[in-house]
Amino acid sequence: MTMVIFPSWLKKMGYSPTLCIIILGIFVYAAIFPKTISPYSPDIRFSPYGEPDENHILGTDDMGYDVLTLLIYATRISLIIGVFTGILSLFIGTSIGIVSGFLQGWVDDLMMGVTDITLIIPKIPVIILIAAYLHPSIWILIIVLGLFSWETTARVVRTKTMQIRNSGFVLSSRCLGFSSFSIIIHDIIPVIYPVLLPKFMLTIASAMISEASLSFLGLSDPMMESWGKMIADAFDHGGFIREMWWWFLPPAICMCVTVLAITRIGMIYESNEPEMVFE
Prior knowledge:
Elements: H1 8-12, H2 17-32, H3 67-103, H4 105-120, H5 123-133, H6 138-147, H7 151-164, H8 168-175, H9 180-216, H10 227-236, H11 245-272
C-alpha cells in the first residue's frame, strides 16, 4: 500500500492566502521578466534529449532546447491566455447579468434564455470543433474560451443586481433623474464588484486548464510555447516513452500549483466578503 505524502507548503495553500499570493507573484514575475531568471535564450539549441545536469537543470527536449528556459517563457503564454480569457468572460457575463437584472421583463427572459442554452452546450467538444476549423492562434483561443465561460458570472451578477435595483440609493438616483446607464456605472457596479473578483480568478484557472487540454489535442498555435504545449510536445516526441520526467512533469506541476493558488485566492476572498443587506 502506497501512501502519498504532500509537501507541507502544498497543504498550507489550502488555507493560507499569503502563500498563494507569493506563489502567484513568482509566476507573474517570471511571465513579465523571463530574461532575468532564464539561464539561456529560448532560441539556443544544445544536444537533444539531454538529462538534467549542472548546465541544464531540467535537461533538454527533442530539439535540444533547455527545458527550464522553455518552462519560464511558457509561463507568459499560459497566464496571458488565462487573464485575457477571464477579462473577456467577466465583461460578457457582467454586461448580460446587469442588463438582465436591472431591466427585467422580456429582456431578462431573453438573456437568461440565451444563458440557459449556453449552459447546456457541451463546451469542450464545441471548443475543439471551432479551434479545429480556425487557424490556431493565441487570440482565437482566448476568444473561443471567453465565449464559453461567462454563464455563471452572468447568473451571479443578475441575482445581485436584482437585490440592488430596488434599494434606497438606487431609487434616490432615479428620483434625481439619473439615466439607467449612470445608475449602473455609479451605483450598481461598485456594489457587485466583490463578487466579480472570485469569478474572474476561477475563470483564469479554468482557461489555463482548457488551453492545456486543447494543446494536448494539437489544437493550439504551434508557434506558441505554453505549459500545455510542453506537455503535448513531450507526449508526441517521445518524452513519455523515454521516461523524460524533466520534460513533462515540471510544466504539469507549475500548472497545478498556479491553478490551485489562483483558485484558493478567489475562494478565500469570496468567503471573507461580508454579506450586504440592501433596503
